[in-house]
Design brief:
It comes from Sandaracinus amylolyticus. GO terms for molecular function: DNA binding; NADP binding; nucleosome binding; oxidoreductase activity. InterPro entries: 6-PGluconate_DH-like_C_sf, 6PGD_dom2, 6PGDH_NADP-bd, HIBADH-related, HIBADH-related_NP60_sf, NAD(P)-bd_dom_sf, RedAm-like_C. This is Putative dehydrogenase. Keywords: Oxidoreductase. This protein has 286 residues and is α/β, with parallel strands linked by helices. It folds into two domains: 156 residues, Rossmann fold (3-Layer(aba) Sandwich), CATH 3.40.50; 117 residues, N-(1-d-carboxylethyl)-l-norvaline Dehydrogenase, domain 2. 51% of the residues lie in helices and 13% in strands. It is built from 13 helices and eight strands. The chain has an eight-stranded mixed β-sheet with strand order 3-2-1-4-5-6-7-8, with helices on both faces. Helix 1 links the parallel strand 1 and strand 2. The chain starts with a strand and ends with a helix. The structure holds NADPH dihydro-nicotinamide-adenine-dinucleotide phosphate (NDP). The site of NADPH dihydro-nicotinamide-adenine-dinucleotide phosphate has 22 residues, from helix 1 and helix 4.
Length: 286
């Protein structure tokens, strides 16, 4: 049986520990503030007083803390004691942080797998909870079945920064979705439509618009930007969105940003192209 050390029992770490215990694993848990997640005790968790105690007998060390600073503060003093173990870092971080952690692990003969959790704590353990992994492929394969208890594991490459990159890119897409949804809700509420009622219109609309993303992706990859609604048309339509947004007293930053990207493309002579062309403004070709 794999012996697991779980460092961090916040909202996410406590769920990660729970599914391992329910799956029959032996789990030693540590949290900076003692006594967190008391329900884990009845499931058989071993409480460790220090991170050192938690990892002593573990083959697999899983860390899930607030950020990279916290992770390094906890792991740095453990470097020599982690030798030969597999470290799975599920703390959210940047690709550069993941690569730096991988170099640190390699310097100390620690097998390093970096992870990105694409799920909320309530989803942990469900098949639709996606967890991205990158780094030491052999270590990942060895522990794949154990990691699968967190949610569907997907190994995305040997570059230890790749899971973090994809994680943050996916979260960026989510930010756009939620920011747009909240802006739309604010405008609807100004017109006397309650948020819940409006959501009944908004959600199917966003589902339908999601269906356009694959075509946009193809246009970006192939650099063929014809076929969709023209930017020349859309840049004018944005005038109406921005004016209505102002009239409703809502912040126009999202809309003026989008219109600015469109206008730059139109001014560069790409008014007949579709939305995919915005990629050249968002990330200019070097
Ligand atoms: P919480 O705020 O609930 O927990 C944070 C954890 O980090 C606690 O265990 C806290 O300990 C610990 N911690 C913070 N600073 C230090 C430090 N300096 N030294 C030691 N321990 C420290 O966060 P979550 O559990 O929700 O998130 C953990 C990670 O998971 C984050 O990187 C987050 O981005 C990621 N994540 C979270 C999701 C979510 O929906 N919650 C979704 C996907 C990823 P203490 O109890 O003592 O404060």
């Amino acid at each position: 049986m794999t012996r697991i050390a779980m460092l961090g029992l916040g909202a996410m770490g406590s769920e990660l520990a729970r599914v391992q215990l329910e799956g029959g694993a032996s789990v030693a848990v540590w949290n900076r503030t003692p006594g967190k997640a008391p329900s884990l005790d009845a499931l058989g968790a071993t409480r460790a007083a220090t991170p050192d105690d938690a990892i002593r007998d573990a083959d697999l060390v899983v860390v899930c803390l607030s950020n990279d600073d916290a992770t390094r503060a906890v792991l740095d003093p453990l470097a020599t004691r982690l030798r030969g173990k597999t470290l799975v870092n599920l703390t959210n971080g940047t690709p550069a942080q993941a690569r730096r952690m991988a170099r640190w692990a390699s310097d100390h003969d620690v097998r390093y797998v970096d992870g990105g959790i694409m799920a909320t704590p309530e989803m942990i353990g469900a098949p639709h909870a996606l967890v991205l992994y990158a780094g030491d492929a052999a270590a990942f394969e060895q522990h794949r079945d154990v990691l699968a208890r967190f949610g569907a594991p997907r190994f995305v490459g040997d570059d230890p920064g790749r899971a973090a990159l994809l994680d943050l890119a996916l979260l960026t897409g989510m930010c756009g979705l939620f920011a747009g949804a909240l802006q739309a809700i604010a405008m609807a509420r100004h017109g006397g439509v309650a948020a819940e009622e409006f959501a009944g219109l908004l959600v199917p609309w966003l589902h339908a618009m999601n269906g356009l993303v694959p075509a946009i992706a193809t246009s970006v990859d192939t650099r063929r930007f014809e076929g969709g609604s023209s930017l020349a048309m859309q840049v004018l339509a944005l005038d109406n969105l921005i004016e209505a947004s102002r009239e409703s007293g809502t912040d126009t930053t999202l809309l003026t940003t989008m219109q600015g990207w469109m206008r730059a493309c139109v001014d560069a002579g790409h008014g007949a192209d579709d939305l995919g062309r915005l990629i050249d403004v968002i990330r200019p070709v070097s």
